[in-house]
Amino acid sequence: MNAYINTYELLCNAGDTESLMEAVYNKESALVIDTSYVKDASAGLGKMEYDNIFTVMDEVTEKVLKDSNLENYHDTLLILGSSVGGMQECEEIFYSEKSFRNIDPNRYSMNALTDHLTKKFGFYDTRALSTACTSSANALLLAKRLIEVEAYENILVMGVDGLCYSTVLGFYALSVLSDKKCIPFDKNRNGMNVAEGVAALLVQNVKMDDSVELKGVGASSDAYHMTNPDPEAGGAMASMKNAITDAGLGADEIDYVNAHGTATIANDRVEALAIERLFGKHVYVSSTKAITGHTLGAAGAIEAVISCEVLKQGMIPPQTGLVELENQNINVPLQRIPMKVKNVISNSFAFGGNNTSIVLGV
Amino acid sequence: MKLYIKNYSSYRSDREDVDIRQLLKQKYKLDTRRQDDFIHLALYGAQMLKERTPIREDDELYVTSGYGDVDVIQRTNTYVNKEKEPLKLFDFINLLGNTTSYYVAKSLNIRGKNIFQISDNFTYINSLVSLYASIKNSQKDAILCAIDLASTPTEVSKRVLGVEKDVKIVSSVNYQKFSLDAEDAIAEVEFDLKIYSQDEIHAMMQNGRKAVFNAVRCAKAKNSEDAVLFETMASDALNRALAKNEDMLYIDCYEEKYKILKLKSLK
Predict the structure, then answer these.
(1) Is A294 a catalytic residue?
(2) What percent of chain A stands above pLDDT 70?
């Protein structure tokens, strides 16, 4: 049984899917330099404006339902990937009251998000995955496998993360947070921008006129270091290889890599090496995190939406912000490339060497 | 959906009083620095499983928990928001779900896929479905770690879980190694996606079948066996039946919905 992405939507710092793709193709970063999160320091962040992340989830979920062939979500499984769950609200309460006393347990943990959506939309069942920056990529991976074993016909995959002090300060403590807008794959990059966003993709077992096929998924574990990737890129290569094999394709059939490309020194060096070894220069590579920032657990779903749009629009996204490419053996375009795009691979890599890649195609 | 169990390991804080960190250091020669109690608990179960069954490098790893590591969330919030201290690096790292998976994968030398799945309902059974769907494709074996740490004080866990103050919360870690292959299996476990109603469960029970319930969540049902709570107690019940070579029907409950799993001993 094949898995198809039939409807999707997102909201992030650059707006909805349409606005984001305009920003991607026009190289207009939606990142801002913020001085409110880190004491006595500035940080590049991807910030949205909303009352709370729950209302953003509602809006995106409703939009996907409206655009789908479903009347409701009562026969749909919800798989949600998030790195922090409801921690944002928990922090706000704790911050204002200096106490846990008024924190609502039902809006706290990872599954607070799925519980909220189930109560509002009546999903048949739910799963919440938390594997940091691979969370929603792993949700897509699980969705494909569940469709394959005919467990479900309709699965809504969501990636959700709201900005939190814990994540911004945590990445700052790790010295990987950039004080500027991030510049993936650039020789002079100095780190990532933490961001927020919500994306939802309806994965179904039926093909429609404008379906994008979720052709392959792959994962691997470096088991090398808690925060640093395997410098030989073994894990990154393995997850891409696994996804391409799962799709029944060869590496030469991939047209575009939507890279994890966080703009940290370690990630981009290793990911570029993996792409160089696997594809050489025949494939176009770019990271859209230069527009959105790193939306952590939501990134896999957001970048899956971008990849779907790349396939549909037949246009390779240029690399925003790039001045001097570090690894000259990969093909990072500075301008958008119109072409027939048949297959795209999207990477998500997380702490602990947790790697996931997905192959989408038409 | 059917999986075969090759082996298992089990620990519950209310049944054994051991210093897990010391055991990890002295018996298993593991570096326990920079890790917290949640990770130590997961590692302890992993090492016990490793003693009982061969682990392959390409085995897949699943870690599942009802509410994750509440202690570290409490600690980071206290530092950052209450005491106005900088976030401690390893507290941030330990906040992440896949930190536990990483340490377990490293200690078992696993390089296959690893997933951390968290849920406050049907935690264990839902993870089994994920695991089954994955290895049905990969044809690998998979290890499932079901873990819940009672935070200190346990009131925090109770608030997060939204349970009454008199419910006893315990720490627990239970592992099983699963396969699609029956060779050398000690038991088989069957489960499905169906959500049963209370009436269907009562009808199921009227044929005299012995079942084990999630005691706290299935309070309205009979035959509750345990008066404590941890979200992954299905895994513990399964391991206890495995230890006695018994068959078992396990019934889990959440907000008037029920799911079941059936264990059949092959010994």
Answers:
(1) yes
(2) 95
pLDDT at A52 (0 to 100): 87
Report the CATH fold assignment for A4-361.
Peroxisomal Thiolase; Chain A, domain 1 (3.40.47)
Question: What are the tens digits of pLDDT across the range B174-192?
Answer: 999 999 999 999 999 999 8
Q: Which two tokens stand for residue B194?
A: 């169906």
- Judge if B58 and B145 occupy the same domain: yes
Tell me which of A12, A133, A164, A308 is the catalytic residue: A133
Active site residue A225: no
Last residue of a domain, one of B167, B187, B207: B187
Q: Could you tell me how far CA B243 lies from the centroid of its own chain? A: 17
Q: Which of B61, B114, B169, B194 to mutate to test the interface with A (most CBs of A within 10 A)?
A: B114
Cβ-based neighbours of A170, under 8 Å, separated by 6 or more = B87, B89, B92, B93, B95
What ipTM is given for this predicted complex?
Answer: 0.85
Give the nearest partner residue to B93 out of A94, A223, A226, using CB atoms: A226
Amino acid sitting at position A323:
V
Whether residues B161 and B98 share a domain: the answer is: yes
Identify which of B102, B103, B162 has the shortest CB distance to residue A105: B162
Can you give the residue range of the structural domain that contains B133?
A: 2-187
Which of residues B187, B214, B248 is at a domain's end?
B187
Domain range summary for chain A, segments of one domain joined by +:
4-361
In a shared domain, residues B31 and B69: yes
With bands split at pLDDT 50, 70 and 90, how would you rate the model's confidence at B170? confident
Rounded Cα distance between A345 and A300, Å, is: 11
Angle at B107 between CA B104 and CA B108, to 5 degrees: 85
Domains held by chain B: number: 2
Extended strands (E) in chain B: 2-12, 60-65, 114-118, 142-148, 168-169, 172-179, 187-191, 211-213, 228-229, 248-254, 257-265
The whole-angstrom distance between B244's CA and the closest CA on chain A is 32
pLDDT in tens, A140-185: 999 999 999 999 999 999 999 999 888 898 899 899 999 999 999 9
CB contact under 8 A, B101 and A87: no
Distance (Å, whole) CA A169 – CA A192:
13
> Residue written as tokens 């990737």?
A229
